Amino acid sequence: MHRDMGIDAYRIPLSGSAQNFKGDIRIANTFTAEVKARKKERNGYIRGMETIMKMLGTHDLLFVWPKGDRDCFVLMPGKIYKELIKAYCKYHKVGLEIKYSTPTAPNEYQNEYYGGIKRCED
Predict the structure, then answer these.
(1) Which residues contact 90 (CB under 8 A, 6 or more apart)?
(2) pLDDT tens for residues 101-121?
(3) 111-113 and 25-27: which strand pairing?
(4) Cα–Cα nearest to 77, from 60, 93, 90
(5) How far is Cα 52 from Cα 90, in angstroms, rounded to an integer?
């Protein structure tokens, strides 16, 4: 999914069970993510996630704020996440996969992000 968007991402060795390697994937060399694949039930919900999925409904984001905590959890559909992560990477100039071609002249390189998303000189 991330590489299709031109964002650098890779799997963590041993799915985070090795010391100093936590989580399942590393995104844009900035974020670590845990991935849980679950089958949808006949009612369209994922077992154990019915309440959260109903709360999200057709909204873009769901903020779950445990009472007394200073931080919250944010749940969002994949399409919203894709927009946010692409905008983050573009703004911070991180995690964008760059392919390098051979120089056309001394010190001149044709660098562009995969998929023609954006040229480095832009």
Answers:
(1) 96, 118
(2) 333 333 333 333 333 333 333
(3) unpaired
(4) 60
(5) 30
**Contact indicator for 21, 40 with CB cutoff of 8 Å:** no
Count CB neighbours of 27 within 10 A: 20
Residue found by looking up tokens 């409904």 in the block: 57
> pLDDT tens across 57-81, in order?
999 999 999 998 889 999 999 999 9
Q: Which residues contact 12 (CB under 8 A, 6 or more apart)?
A: 21, 22, 23, 24, 25, 26, 32
Tokens for 45, please give them: 């919900």
Give residue 4's identity as a one-letter amino acid code.
D
Confidence of residue 97 (pLDDT cuts 50, 70, 90): low
Helix (H, G, I), strand (E, B) or coil at 47: coil
**Burial (CB count within 10 angstroms: exposed 0-12, middle 13-18, buried 19+), residue 31:** middle
Domain borders along the chain are 3-116
Residue 2: count of CB within 10 angstroms of its CB: 20
